[in-house]
Design brief:
386 residues; Aspartate Aminotransferase, domain 2
Length: 386
């Protein structure tokens, strides 16, 4: 029997050990973390909706009507009127014929890729795709090839020798870098080679594009150019779960063949009802996106003045690239001592030599919050240089 403890000890020694923190209270810029009040820049609650009273009221009303749990999978008796209404509204929001709810974005990606491709087919993914896309590609029996990040020319060369049906999968907004995929170019090369294009827009929905319709809409593309769209509900929309949107034939195929959909209990109806409210808020309250993008610009301006190495991102995901794991851990610990919590991202989540602080901004932050973060980052940078 292999030694699990030895592996854990090595991970600890390498500075790669992951630990959970216990939070208390509603999500927001300031959060009780392990009993200590901290300013947080590590949530994906981009529009500040996770603790919105209107969503909480929707949950309360829905629990009275539906109870707490769905009780069964969608295909048994778990598909409520709340789920059905949310799917229709998500389809309309994304400009597609239909949408299908999944319990998580991870399950949605596994389900779509494995349902649509198999032995004899080809799947192509960006090298910096989210783990769920990579795992979905590995799960299928299709031939899986990864192309260099955002390199459409390399993808074109790979597609030229593809066998069987071809599927291209990419993040819309890359979760560790915050940059946006070259969607128009991806759509063009996919069309050239009769390949289907799937975009995981977990970090674009609610944040980018007109009315928050995401990175695909921001690029001026429609369902014909990007026939498979996955979006999550637990980030900008502040609730939980995910959806896939596309044609009638696509959704019916997933209902029949996507194992993570067929064999999983449906999300609680109350979450679906809260998401319906969140979708309306995200669509109507443009000021949230305006405020968010203003805070992003404020942070980037201040970080550049400090000489920090930023990623090529104009989204709420702002990586500060530090290089080695030890440096990233040291900066993260220093921020935490100062009462600020950010994500410390290390290999294998990112490539060796690119360990970083992953700073995420929310419309719930204030300019003062951002200035407080920049002030502490400046102190750490000065200390490192001394």
């Amino acid at each position: 029997m292999w030694s699990l403890q030895q592996q854990l000890d090595k991970r600890q020694a390498d500075g790669l050990y992951r630990s959970r923190r216990v939070t208390d209270g509603p999500q927001g810029p300031e959060l009780l973390v392990d009993g200590r009040r901290m300013l947080t820049f590590c949530s994906n609650d981009y529009l500040g909706l996770a603790a919105d009273a209107r969503l909480a009221d929707a949950v309360k009303r829905a629990v009275v009507r539906y109870g707490v749990g769905a009780g069964a999978a969608h295909l048994i008796s778990g598909h409520s009127a709340a789920h059905d209404a949310l799917e229709e509204e998500l389809a309309a929001f994304t400009g597609r014929e239909r949408a299908l709810l999944f319990s998580t974005g991870y399950m949605a990606n596994l389900g779509v890729i494995s349902a649509l491709t198999g032995r004899g087919d080809s799947v192509f993914g960006d090298r910096r795709n989210h783990a769920s896309l990579n795992d979905g590609c590995l799960l299928t029996r299709a031939r899986f090839r990864r192309y260099p990040h955002a390199d459409v020319a390399a993808l074109r060369a790979q597609l030229a020798v593809a066998r069987g049906n071809a599927l291209v999968v990419s993040d819309g907004v890359f979760s560790m870098d915050g940059d946006v995929a070259p969607l128009a170019e991806l759509a063009g090369v996919a069309a050239e080679h009769d390949a289907a294009l799937m975009i995981d827009d977990a970090h674009g929905i609610g944040v980018l594009g007109p009315r928050g319709q995401g990175s695909i809409a921001a690029a001026g593309l429609d369902a014909a150019a990007v026939p498979l769209l996955m979006g999550t509900l637990g980030k900008a929309l502040g609730t939980a779960g995910a959806f896939v949107a596309g044609s009638q034939a696509l959704i019916e195929t997933l209902i029949q063949q996507a194992r993570p959909y067929v064999y999983t209990t449906a999300m609680p109806p109350a979450i679906a009802e809260a998401t319906r409210v969140a979708l309306r808020i995200a669509t109507d309250e443009e000021w949230r996106r305006e405020r968010l993008h203003g805070l992003v610009q404020r942070f980037r301006h201040g970080a550049r003045q400090l000489g920090l190495r930023l990623g090529d991102s104009t989204t709420p995901i702002q990586p500060v690239v530090l290089g080695d794991t030890a440096t990233a851990n040291r900066w993260g610990a220093a921020l935490q001592r100062a009462g600020i919590l950010v994500g410390t991202i290390r290999p294998p989540t990112v490539a060796e030599g690119t360990a970083r602080l992953r700073i995420t901004l929310s419309a719930a932050h204030s300019a003062a919050h951002v200035e407080a973060l920049l002030s502490v980052l400046g102190e750490i940078a000065a200390g490192e240089a001394a």
